[in-house]
Specification:
516 residues, alpha+beta, Beta-Lactamase, Helix Hairpins, 4 domains, five-stranded mixed β-sheet
């Protein structure tokens, strides 16, 4: 607390210099106020942290709930499950309503049944010439009801004055509630006759200017027996019919959903077959539901943009390879005319660059399906041509080439130039990995081509890398760019063939299968 300079003691303190106790008093007051502020700030920070923690928990719960209920799944399964759950709920609700109607409010069903009984009695009344009911014409198959169970099923036909004209109990009065008299306007009530509770329904009948009342009654025990013996089985049969109907409905919905989702499955299969060499393929919108057509249209437009970008990339690659060929040829000519001491090294580097440019050009060409000219070709002639082309390379490294052609080898539809490049690259790769004195075997059959070497084989960890672009093995002799096997893979895919590599008993083997 600050010193009060208006008080006498405060004025005395103001006139004298401050002692150490005054400063201590001031510091104690300041520290107290500061501590209170710090405590208040700490409480506020704690409340803020608690609110933030609750907010984060709530957000995490909503995220988990959203992921759980909105994660990807079968659309048909969701719709079918929704229909089944809705049907089950409807059946349960209907059963509860029926149970309530027949058990909790049994009087409704009882009144309806007695009303129909009163109508039946009215329709079977016989009248005399004056229009007065004189008899009840009961059919033989129902005549026993009012004679065999006279205490439980009763009827009365009463005129407007309360006189009983016809009755199932001779001499019995008209029905009326206990302690009351007959009233033609009373259409539904309970009464007791001979100690037995009865439920009564009355119906007015007009005939020849006179009004009559038909009263039909049933005992409480007969009504309970009727409800247990008839209503119970009706409920059970209704539930059984509902269960069978639900199964049939589920099967029908499943078949309908399968038919409705068939265009989506076909579109999915078509989309899965789209690859870089058939980017011009588009999904059809004609068979799609109207709600899914914007999605298919957007997918096709995305393919348009992707195809355009891929075409630009391929055109750039081909153009760059073409543009580099001429400068490399000029540089080679200048180096050959020079008398430099390292001319041989420069020529080797130029040849290596020219080879890489040539392979890039090949790679750009084989990646486009429209660059192929498919025709009937002689496999043996192309294989022999490729082996002859590489004969000098094989002789230089001491490797023998063995071309084996199956008897009666049939022509094969393919692009001759692409097949030549495929076989040349495979044979050259086998030569580069074969030791001196080894044999490279080229085996031609109707179902494919295999190229085997007698080298060290392919390490297991290198198998997934073989057909990747610019990947080079460690044991090859040349300094290529690592595009040869990638070009072979592209050519095989373009023709619908498969190219696989495996290790044999000795060396490695590359198999081109014409039949997938």
């Amino acid at each position: 607390m600050r010193p009060d300079f208006t008080s006498p003691r405060g004025r005395d303190r103001a006139r004298r210099p401050w002692r150490e106790s005054d400063w201590r008093h001031w510091d104690d007051a300041g520290h107290a106020a500061h501590g209170e502020r710090c405590a208040r700030a700490a409480r506020d920070d704690e409340k803020h942290a608690q609110r933030e923690l609750r907010w984060r928990r709530r957000l995490a719960w909503h995220l988990v709930h959203h992921r759980r209920h909105h994660q990807g799944g079968s659309l048909g399964g969701r719709l079918l499950a929704t229909f089944i759950v809705a049907s089950l709920l409807s059946i349960v609700l209907a059963a509860l309503l029926l149970e309530t109607a027949f058990n909790w409010h049994r009087s409704l069903a009882l009144s309806h049944g007695l009303g129909e009984q009163a109508e039946w009695i009215e329709s079977h009344l016989a009248f005399d010439a004056a229009g007065k009911p004189v008899a009840l014409r009961e059919p033989e198959d129902t005549a026993w009801v009012y004679t065999a169970a006279t205490r439980d099923w009763k009827y009365r036909v009463v005129d407007s004055r309360g006189t009983v004209l016809l009755t199932s109990d001779p001499g019995a009065p008209a029905f009326a509630p206990a302690g009351a008299t007959f009233d033609a306007g009373r259409d539904r009530f309970d009464t007791v006759v001979d100690g037995l509770p009865l439920h009564v329904v009355a119906r007015l009948v007009a005939r020849g200017g006179d009004a009559y009342t038909v009263q039909a009654a049933i005992s409480d025990r007969a009504a309970a027996l009727f409800s247990g013996a008839i209503v119970g089985p009706i409920l059970q049969n209704a539930l059984a019919i509902a269960a069978v109907s639900l199964v049939l409905f589920a099967l029908g919905v499943h078949a309908t959903l399968g038919h409705l989702l068939l265009p989506m499955r076909r579109a999915s299969d078509a989309a899965a077959r789209i690859a870089p060499r058939n980017l011009d393929t588009r999904l059809s919108e004609s068979a799609m539901p109207r709600e899914l057509r914007p999605l298919i249209r957007g997918f096709n437009e995305a393919l348009d943009r992707l195809q355009q970008g891929y075409r630009v990339q391929q055109e750039f690659l081909a153009a760059a390879a073409h543009e580099l060929k001429t400068p490399l040829a000029l540089i080679r000519g200048q180096v050959e005319l020079s008398e430099s001491e390292d001319r041989a090294l420069l020529l080797a580097d130029i040849d290596r660059m020219a080879r890489q440019v040539h392979q890039l050009l090949h790679l750009a060409e084989v990646s486009e399906a429209h660059n192929f000219k498919i025709e009937e070709i002689d496999l043996a002639a192309v294989a022999t041509e490729a082996a002859t082309f590489l004969q000098r390379l094989a002789q230089r490294v001491g490797v023998h080439l063995d071309v084996r052609v199956a008897e009666g080898l049939a022509p094969r539809r393919a692009d001759r130039g692409a097949l030549f490049v495929l076989l040349k690259n495979l044979i050259e790769n086998a030569i580069q990995h074969s030791p001196r004195g080894a044999v490279v075997t080229v085996d031609l059959r109707d179902n494919g081509v295999s190229v085997r070497d007698e080298g060290a084989g392919i390490p297991a960890e290198h198998m997934p890398e073989l057909f990747k672009r610019f990947w080079r093995g460690e044991s090859r002799r040349d300094t290529g760019a690592g595009l040869g096997l990638a070009i072979c893979h592209e050519i095989s895919l373009a023709h619908g063939w498969s190219l696989v590599a495996r290790n044999g008993t000795v060396g490695a083997e590359f198999l081109v299968s014409f039949e997938l």
